[in-house]
Structure formats: C-alpha cells, structure tokens
C-alpha cells in the first residue's frame, strides 16, 4: 500500500519538484495542465510568434509537435510556423551564436529542456515579472532574472510597467533593495489575467517540449494504476484461497 501511495504521489508531484526555484524572485506559482491540448496549442503559437526569432529548440521537430498537438501539416506550417521551414525540420534558428553575442552580449540558450533546468514556476515568473528600467541596456529589467540581456519580448501584450523598490541599508552599510509593487505606465493589448494565461500556456508548451513522452506517460498512468489494483486484488483472492484450510 505504501508503495502504491508513493507511486501515486510521485506521479502527481514531479512538476512540483521540478519547480523548485533556486533563490530567485518567485511571486506566484503556476498551474499548468499538460493534457490540455488547447493550452499547448496556444503556447506553441506564442512560441513560434515571439520566441523562435532568437531561441532554437534543437530536440524538437515540427511534425512531432503537430502530431502531439493534433494538428495536420497545413495547420502547423501555415497556421503556426512563420518561416519557410519544412514539416520534417528540426526547430532550429538561423541566427549564429556569434551574431547573437554581438547583439545581446549573451547568446539566447536553446529552450528544448529549459523547463527541466529552471522549473515551471521560475519560467512563469520570468515571463510575468519584466519592468521598464531606463538604467539597463535593453530598457528592461526582470525581477526573476535581474539584469537579463533578453528584452521584454511580450511588452505589447503585457504593457509597460515600472517597479517600486524599498531601499534600505544593513548594519554593514550594504544597500538592500526590496521589491514593493509594479506601476502600469501603459496598458497592453491583454489585461492582466489574459497575459498570465498566455504565459501559463507558453510555460506548458515549454514543459511538454522538455519531455514530449510525458503525454504518453500521462495517458498510460491510469492504465498502469488499474493494472496494479487488479493484480493486487487477484493476489489477495489467491491468498484467501490458499489459506482457507490453514487454521
Ligand atoms: C530578441 C531575441 C530574443 C527573443 C525574441 C526571445 N529571447 Fe529569450 N533570451 C534572449 C537572450 C539574449 C537571453 C539570455 C539572457 C541572459 O542570460 O541574460 C534569453 C534568455 C531566455 C531565458 C533564460 C534562460 C536561462 O536559463 O537563463 C528564457 C527562459 C527565455 N529566454 C525564454 C524566452 C521566451 C519564452 C521567449 C518568447 C516569448 C523568448 N525568450 C524570446 C533573447 C531572446
């Protein structure tokens, strides 16, 4: 019974464990659902539109994503993908490392397994916690990845916000900065909830991409549990039968 409980717990908690942040600002947690095809499609669409300009996903292919998201070749290549890539291509990008470094100071990492590396809560907070900062090179800063060299790509959707900090000094004279709140300077195309939903779907897609086999694993799980319960029941009946004459 204990083992069964452990299996159950680990099945449902893997994403929670992966989500452990690592000392960065995590204002709120994200609830994703990898079995929601609509959410994955939305996430894929945002990814193709806004992220693929700079980030590759070398371990993914367009046809694999299409198959997993229930899209045919036309829906995928004409509906989601903006480049003239082929259906069987890997999701690589044209920008070279050298150019990227020149433009951004850092090259944008491949995002194939970023969900495993950073965790879902981190990614979600990174996407929702940008603010305008005239002191930074890009004009943007981020609570979750301070001094990020990636600008706020989704600013037109989220709008422009500034951040207020409470600054104090500790006993040794070091400056301490504590985040207080955001102030909206210019509203975006989406309202706050719509933007958070978009970020959640994008994180969901990144989670799926980091391990596409999750979909199969998740759909197999109920059957595995059913088999385990059935087998336990049979074993129990057998035991009852064997022991019925032993007193
Ligand atoms: C204009 C180019 C550009 C675009 C477009 C872009 N990024 Fe980035 N991204 C970068 C750069 C440069 C970095 C490196 C930032 C750093 O480490 O300071 C980065 C870093 C990241 C990281 C952090 C990786 C890490 O672990 O440090 C994540 C996550 C990320 N990007 C996700 C996205 C998502 C999601 C999108 C689409 C909404 C996107 N990026 C669009 C340039 C871009």
General description of the model:
The protein is of the alpha+beta class. It has a single domain, classed as Cytochrome c-like domain (Cytochrome Bc1 Complex, Chain D, domain 2, Orthogonal Bundle), CATH 1.10.760. It has 10 helices and 6 strands; from the N terminus they run ααβααβαααββαββαα. The chain has helices at residues 2-18, 37-51, 62-68, 73-80, 97-104, 114-118, 120-128, 155-158, 192-210, 214-242; strands at 57-61, 90-91, 130-132, 140-142, 159-169, 175-187. The strands form 3 sheets. A two-stranded antiparallel ribbon has the order 1-2. It has a two-stranded antiparallel ribbon with strand order 3-4. A hairpin with a 5-residue loop joins strand 5 (159-169) and strand 6 (175-187). Helix 2 (37-51) crosses helix 9 and helix 7 (120-128) runs antiparallel to helix 9. The longest helix has 29 residues, at 214-242. Mean pLDDT is 89; it is low at 10-22. Heme C binds next to helix 2, helix 6 and helix 7.
